[in-house]
């Protein structure tokens, strides 16, 4: 009996050892997103320290408070760069891993744009780190460079995010279409009277698939517009529109699926 | 010098006959020792565990090979966005019609069209401040 328990414990341990690397892979499959979220959390803490140091300096204007303000400003610029860098890496990772986008020219284009921005941010960070005893003004000059690019970066972010959502929906739409083709093949193999009715039902499915496709196309058109907008309000409204189109596309696919189930049961 | 010799032993014929006792059973001491020896039990356990480990490694290798085979099926070919193949679609022929319907239903339920984790971060881009003199 003891031997039996020992074997059970050993089996459990062995399974844990064998599947541990697998679990690590699963856990770390979201690593770029987790990295970004961690850096964003760090930014929020650093930002509080920055505002506190800044307010102290503005209030007392002592040399000590000035030194503290310089240190805090340097830290917040570095952390802001780090947030953006990890955010772009997370977007790149998501673009690469969204099945409906694999190999598309738009995906490649956005990944390349994100790459450029990541390199730019890394160079900026290097420059800040190389400064010895920077003044507040030195740091503001560096910060202003990112501020000048901020709208462009926001636009790139929303373009990437929208493309990821579109890719997901395209994937499901393709699955629904190929399922419809399979059902059609099955219908053709059954007796004529029954098949006539099911063919009518299949038309309904095709119609829903078509409507879903149209919504995805509308979302794609809006996604193209994002590249031309720079103000955040404009970007947000287009992004909301895209989400709405994709929600509709999903709804049509859900209806198509319900019909597909009915057809399958009727076969 | 006087030597005190002991009497010579008697001939065996003159010895009184003793009742023959049944010979004690010859125990397989070696087998008993092996059975009692805790080291032997450990050996059994060790062998059992080794076999289990080999079995598990076999299963793991099998799974990894299967995974590789599936990855090869999933491998997409580059094409424009409008015609990009869906990796799940390429896997689908392996499933039954019912299986495909179920997979599509699950994917439709699970799809995340918000991606809240990837919404652009809210950052302060205007850091410039000036002390009043």
Provide a descriptive summary of the structure in words:
The complex is a heterodimer of chains A (267) and B (133). By secondary structure, chain A is mainly alpha-helical. Helices cover 90% and strands 0% of the residues of chain A. Chain A contains seven helices and no strands. Chain B is mainly alpha-helical. Chain B is 48% helix and 0% strand. Chain B contains four helices and no strands. The longest helix of chain B has 37 residues, at 38-74. Chain B starts with 28 loop residues before the first helix and ends in a 23-residue tail after the last helix. The relative contact order of chain B is 0.03. Chains A and B meet through helix 1, helix 2, helix 3, helix 4 and helix 5 of A and helix 2, helix 3 and helix 4 of B.
What is Rg of chain A?
27 Å
Mean pLDDT of chain B: 68
| 3D shape of chain B | elongated
- Name the assembly state: heterodimer
Task: Record the SSE blueprint.
The complex is a heterodimer of chains A (267) and B (133).
Chain A: H1 2-27, H2 31-60, H3 63-96, H4 105-130, H5 136-188, H6 192-226, H7 232-266
Helix pairs in contact in A: 2-3, 3-4, 3-5, 4-5, 5-6, 5-7, 6-7
Chain B: H1 29-36, H2 38-74, H3 87-91, H4 97-110
What structural keywords apply?
heterodimer; A: 267 residues; mainly alpha; 7 helices; 0% strand; B: 133 residues
